[in-house]
Amino acid sequence: MTESVDVVLIGGGIMSATLGTLLHELQPDWKIVAFERLSDVAQESSNPWNNAGTGHAALCELNYMPKNDGGPLDPAKAVSINEQFQQSRQFWSSLVAKGVLDEPSTFINATPHMTFVRGEKDVAYLKARYEVLKKQPLFEGIEYSEDSRVINQWAPLLMQKRRKGEPFAATRVPAGTDVDFGALTHQLFDHLAGSGVELRTNHEVRKLKKQKDGSWQVSYRNALGHTPGELNAKFVFVGAGGWALKLLQRSGIPEIKGYGVFPIGGQFLKTTNPAIVSQHKAKVYSQASVGAPPMSVPHLDTRVVDGEASLLFGPFATFSPKFLKNGSMLDIVSQVRTHNLWPMLRVAFANPDLITYLVGELLKNHRKKVDGLRVFMPTAKDEDWSLIDAGQRAQVMKKDAEKGGVLQFGTEVVSAADGSIAGLLGASPGASTAVPIMLSLLQKCFPGQYAGWEPALRELIPTYGEKLNENEAAADASMTATAAALGISR
């Protein structure tokens, strides 16, 4: 007799961990099974060395508030991202209080967020951005300076041997964070596994087939012994990074038609030299190169992983046809269907700058990459930095009525009309906004239960349903409370 469960989670990353935790808190009687094809969770995009670990709150990322050809800057996107991150912070705070998560410093640490730009046009833009954001309650405390002495206090490595007469400017938000999403994912899955949720590592889901009763037959195999198996699930979540597209295509749901993904890999320069690391405690973002995707914005970051501080600079784009670091070389070809071929071709024709950018990145040697770092840190020496491979990002390509196809930056939930299956495609801001993304999924896929869950959700997320940026007192109270609970700066 085929085993029946309430929920199947495919993929052992932060998204599945977050959704599993929410469902377990809301419906502790539901039977949940999670599948991960590798030997452990958080080995792909959630691994701390495979992502920026920024704690995206739009404090320093310029692509959430782009230039507007001389028109007024619109803070709506930046405010929305910050609102979402506040929900994640509140959720994590509640889980720390409940004992689900460990000491906060094991996964989140206070790290100021900065933006640094050069050149008159970018300086003027950054100042205009600051003037708009300083009026937003969620961005209270943002600072701006064109004074080298002030910026030197914030981040000395940016100013040492800086060329005289060069226009530059920086903003700084002391309340930024560095998040180890690998540690967070492990802790969430550890709690789930200890609370009755079954985690099956080394198990790869191969097929999804809709049954007459509305459930899903989930066919899988043990990746070690290649032993096949199957179970039936009332609901399936596909949180498997780029692999999600392949599984959603195999499910046959019409909602996935027209979607494709373009894989982009990355590398970072890394140093653990104490003499360098001790001089920089911040995440410093700048403008992206012409043609570069938003996730390739250069940044010099403090990272804290397993209690050890290091600095990363990048990312530098790489290319692999794989959708995951541990994917297949045939991934980029095997996704092609008659319904998504034209949108993908249109994306290729419409983005020559992206192709040029990728080719240029692939031609860079180690010295050229350190030259990119020297734009931020003029004193950088080649021998102090080594390259590490980051994760694969699968950028969404989708149908568009006017253009035929567009390259979609950000994350997107694709779900069946009946809500029985859903999957997540895309990349940044991703992990930082996992909680609101999963709340939106729950509302869409479980309309009959959602209203009954709202009281419990308000206990987990005290300002659930509110817009903090529209209420200065509420924003201040919420950020103060979560900062205290997580042991980070206000």
What does this structure look like?
With 490 residues, the protein is of the alpha+beta class. It has a single domain (3-486), classed as 3-Layer(bba) Sandwich (FAD/NAD(P)-binding domain), CATH 3.50.50.60. Helix content is 34%, strand content 26%. It contains 15 helices and 20 strands. It has helices at residues 14-26, 76-97, 120-133, 148-154, 156-159, 181-193, 243-251, 274-277, 331-334, 338-350, 352-362, 366-376, 434-445, 447-460, 472-486; strands at 3-10, 32-36, 108-110, 113-118, 143-145, 168-173, 177-179, 198-201, 203-210, 216-222, 228-238, 260-271, 283-285, 299-305, 308-318, 386-389, 393-400, 404-408, 411-415, 421-426. The strands form 3 sheets. Strands 4, 5, 6, 12, 13, 14, 15, 16, 17 and 18 form a 10-stranded mixed β-sheet that branches. Strand 14 (299-305) and strand 15 (308-318) form a beta hairpin. The chain is globular, with a radius of gyration of 22 Å. The termini are far apart. The model has no long low-confidence stretch (mean pLDDT 92). It catalyses: (S)-malate + a quinone = a quinol + oxaloacetate. Belongs to the MQO family. Keywords: FAD, Flavoprotein, Oxidoreductase, Tricarboxylic acid cycle. InterPro entries: FAD/NAD-bd_sf (IPR036188), MQO (IPR006231). Pathway: Carbohydrate metabolism; tricarboxylic acid cycle; oxaloacetate from (S)-malate (quinone route): step 1/1.
